[in-house]
Specification:
By secondary structure, the protein is of the alpha/beta class. It has 8 helices and 9 strands. The chain has a single domain (4-237), classed as Alpha-Beta Complex (Spore Coat Polysaccharide Biosynthesis Protein SpsA, Chain A). It has a 7-stranded mixed beta sheet with strand order 3-2-1-4-7-5-8, sandwiched between helices. Strands 6-9 form a two-stranded parallel sheet. Helix 2 links the parallel strand 2 (35-42) and strand 3. Helix 5 packs parallel to helix 8 and helix 7 (187-198) runs parallel beside helix 8. The model has no long low-confidence stretch (mean pLDDT 95). The structure holds guanosine-5'-triphosphate and magnesium ion. Guanosine-5'-triphosphate is lined by residues 10-12, 14, 41-43, 72-75, 78, 98-100, 102, 213, 218-220.
Amino acid sequence: MSEIISIILPTYNERKNIGQLVPQILDVCRDNQIASSLIIVDDNSPDGTAAIVSQLAQKFPGQISLIKRSQKMGLGSAYLAGFKKALREQAHYIFEMDADLSHSPTDIPRLLAAAHSHDLVLGSRYVPGGKVNNWSALRKIISRGGTLYAKTILGLPINDLTSGFKCFSANVLKQLDLSKIKSDGYSFQVELTYHAYQAGFKIKEVPITFEDRQVGQSKFSKQIFWEAALMIWRLRLGTRL
Ligand SMILES: Nc1nc2c(ncn2[C@@H]2O[C@H](COP(=O)(O)OP(=O)(O)OP(=O)(O)O)[C@@H](O)[C@H]2O)c(=O)[nH]1
Ligand SMILES: [Mg+2]
């Protein structure tokens, strides 16, 4: 049986990005003979993102599904809902990808190729060949500092813990106890990678170029920052403080 990949795209007010991103992903997958299914998890975005997704689902039948949630419930739980659906659909590989065009669809084949010999592949801005375009100096410091903080406290030999562009072998998501994941914001990325590392899964970083979003609003907030700072210690101590 040929392999199937699911790409989970959480959306909150991404109306102007999703219409561009979906055809780009489908083009890359078609050109590289990758059988893909896109799962978009929308939290009742006030800008009407879900309506655009419904139009895309009609335009590309059988390739796109929409999970509609009633309100903004956070990135972490959006991904968990997407993972459940992808596993029900028997996906072999499951991608996490932002819907704001920060992650390039052209990187999908390289991440997938690496996933054939690793359990979890991380798109990484901070390995040779990786890059961030158009971020302010402050944003770069927060991102680099965040990974350094998390990797030091958790003892993780990983250079980019928060890029959010990942490819899991289905086996990883089947074996981890996803019901124990508590993070909602950026720490969701760290938490999942930490549990995968602790469970002994083989992790590989693949360089990516990350572009700052051109359209729409960043959801990065003080609340997300502090949630992440505290969550790292909760993980380290193995407790829920
Ligand atoms: N369904 C859902 N999606 C979300 C939520 N918060 C963020 N997202 C989406 O998750 C993806 C990544 O979001 P972030 O990178 O954290 O937020 P951002 O606004 O892109 O912030 P930057 O890091 O500045 O790019 C984007 O596609 C967002 O639309 C949420 O609560 N629910
Ligand atoms: Mg983003």
